[in-house]
């Protein structure tokens, strides 16, 4: 369970530091707008996303079991976080995240990393596609410039609300959002290592500020972002509150474990390495304990940022540490500039993210799965969309394990996740 940092630091050199520094700064420029967008989509303040990228990103790299893993807020949590905030308030989310961190830490101590592979891959794919669909629909509000419309994380409620507000569409906001979608998608295809999302969003936001266009920005919606980090504090704790939030804490812990280990596997393939799953769980636990103390969101390994790190030349956890410190320095010195970021452009970023997250190019492969696996995938996806993630994960996992026993395939298959590194 030794952190990879202790292993890689033995033969560290200035050449490696320069590569890590360039990669860390590059990833920070990718993570900055994405962390803000994820926080807003989750129903939280923009600063919560930045705090998570700084605190959790630092700890995941410092203590983690992967050489190149980058941690922070991810799209997988948006639906869960939105639901917890809606039902229990932001303080409830902080406590649930802290509890999830404890659960992850216990899992790491008990060496439970290998048991995550018991979760059937069709279940993971099913809830990933379902979450991607919900994220995309939830961003249509800001893409269309509908500031007065509150869109629920429940897709069944969201679509009628959006349709009812169709006459209030802001054509300028829509044009900005479509520009962001096209620009971000193009730059990700041409230069996946380049922080093109920030460039596109900055260009769109600069045009809005320069021409005083009637489009919502972070400042007009949330006010000025505070510089630096807030003082740490413990959220309100009681037996009743812990009991009410325990199911949510287990869902957060499950998602953090699955996403971080999937990301680590993808990173291993890119660098020809091998991660330490139990050290990774311990790092995720520490990150999810510390993040809520500063007002942050749940965190996990981020596949896209990890891949960007590798492509930009990152070789050791120092790159992830530099990424977190770079975001902190940006918030201290130029955080006020984030207030100019346009809401439709951030919505466009998340729509592109959800599109890549759903891996549309793999539908042919999915339809060719065995009947049981195909049914499991669609069952989990539909339950994610029409009920909630807790039910989808529980039903999908139980059904998948039952299917494995029926097939007498008791030993867990080695995970073979596809390369979602463009996300």
Automatic annotation (TrEMBL):
Lipid bilayer topology: Multi-pass membrane protein
Keyword ATP-binding: no
Compartments it resides in: Membrane
Tagged with keyword Transmembrane helix: yes
Record protein name field: SulP family inorganic anion transporter
Coiled coil: none
Predominant localisation class: membrane
Keyword set, alphabetical order: Membrane, Transmembrane, Transmembrane helix
InterPro entries: SLC26A/SulP_dom, SLC26A/SulP_fam
A matching Pfam family: Sulfate_transp
